[in-house]
Amino acid sequence: MRRGRDRRTKVIQHHWDHRADTFDDEAGHGLLNDEQRRAWQELLSRLAGRPPRRVLDVGCGTGFLALRLGELGHEVTGVDLSPQMIDRARGKAEQEALQIEFRAGDATALADADGTYDLVVGRHLIWNLPHPERAVAEWLRVLRPGGRLALVEGKWADNTALQRSYSRGVSRILNRVLDATSALALRGGGHPSKLVNSNYFRVEVQLPFSGGPSAGGLAAFLDDNGVHDITVEPLMDETLWGGPPEFPRYLAVGTRPPSASQ
Prior knowledge:
It is globular and about 45 Å long. About 9% of the residues have low confidence. A seven-stranded mixed β-sheet has the order 3-2-1-4-5-7-6, with helices on both faces. The chain is α/β, with parallel strands linked by helices and 262 residues long. It has ten helices and seven strands. The longest helix is centred in the C-terminal third of the chain and has 17 residues.
């Protein structure tokens, strides 16, 4: 993990730690039934190919994609910034008797060697990263030449509108108070829910892909950051989400170039 993580990353970690216990209860997060399981297994089987493949699930949360890939017989590693999310994922893997390596870590500074994986996947992650360009560079680094990057994403809010809404609701004085109290809480290990939520929202609205990236925007971003052969596929089948999607969802897939010169 990268040393000296900035305060934004720490605030993001604490936010998701607080949400870990109820994360799977929210719409579109957890696994609801066997029909949904089969729909995701079919999608991921097309992506990964015949098992066993070495797969990394970045920002794995409570393990949704990692578990489905493990069920398909792949050799899976899941990484998430939140230790509480990792604990939940490990517990589910143990219940299902799946051999999946889950570890706490930073998606922008992975501990893996170059060219370790055949496939890197992420689900609703890139919108929550302060430095998405660093993350993509890391994901390409740990992919073997010709390996695939697959991101499940969606666009649920307008970034500019979120920033305007936040600016109207928070004064400069309150911002300074939040800065001071956040620093004390993070240093001391205490992080009351209201404080964490306030600081997280302030961080969230300033993220490059806050509100989720549009399909075209993400495809252009991946292309600008060295991903090849990018395709985008809508993911609007309600079976995948346990109900009709409330906003555009899609899958962006690309590859690591076969060689550094390409």
